[in-house]
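Contributing new records

If you add data, match the layout below exactly. Sequence lines come first and carry their own label; structure lines follow with theirs. Keep one chain per record. Anything else will be rejected by the validation script.
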Amino acid sequence: MKLLLSGRALTAGAVAVATLVTGGSAAGAATAPTPAHPAADATAAAAAAPDIPIANVKAHLSQLQSIATANGGNRAHGRAGYQASLNYVKAKLDAAGFTTRVQQFTASGRTGHNLIADWPGGDANQVVMAGSHLDSVTSGPGINDNGSGSSAVLETALAVARSDYRPTKHLRFAWWGAEELGLVGSRYYVNSLGSAERAKISGYLNFDMIGSPNPGYFVYDDDPAIEKTFKDYYAGLGIPTEIETEGDGRSDHAPFKNAGVPVGGLFSGADYRKTSAQAAKWGGTVGQPFDRCYHSSCDTTANIDATALDRNSDAIAYAVWELSQ
């Protein structure tokens, strides 16, 4: 998630022409198990969604950590760590049968990239998107911010392939570049679409920081239908949620929302401090930040709450299945 500092917000004024790279191969068809605690009023839809293996999500995080360690301790825009992160995600998607394309832009004097992955089939006039930013800040590896969202979205996409899911709507997944410089990559993508193409996106789901070590369970309140989908899931788990306010307008849903696309998402908290009321609901430490390592060198694989990561990953899959039927 980008810093809430006006000086950090850059425009995408100096963008290069997008380049498209496609590829993919046939996916397997092993069906994943269903969630142990589906939402009470949406049991049938939840039963169709797989449980996302937390071990797989954590394995992606370990890979991103290794990439950062080998590349100066970060995965920031325009640097080798970011390119290696994109290559890792793209290779997984290509092998699973997605059609991938890399969109190129320029920001802060460096070349950046978005990765877009389309699952074949579904109504191309009704597109459900799920996305996350893949870049870190320069000061750390960015494992919670935002390896957590990137890894969960990747594993959800791979679950689509494993189950050979054939939804009514078309599924598209995205990993954004240069979010930390002011939502540059996602804004470039939205601006690259004509009005007709933007109108085809029936919903964009954003996941930026979902494994915070002192977690909260926050739901975006932008589109009512998407908001209800996430709230229903967590109600089925008996977990109270709150409306997300800390990151409002600070992540990649903002360009979509500004263009009239329905948006929603999940968030586990950044540098705001947990209140006593929140600790009573969710556990954790009162008076401490949701993520004490936000935008710091200690945002490593040790900076992840596995329970929050697991719950939010399953919620992503639930929403993708529910909203694409």
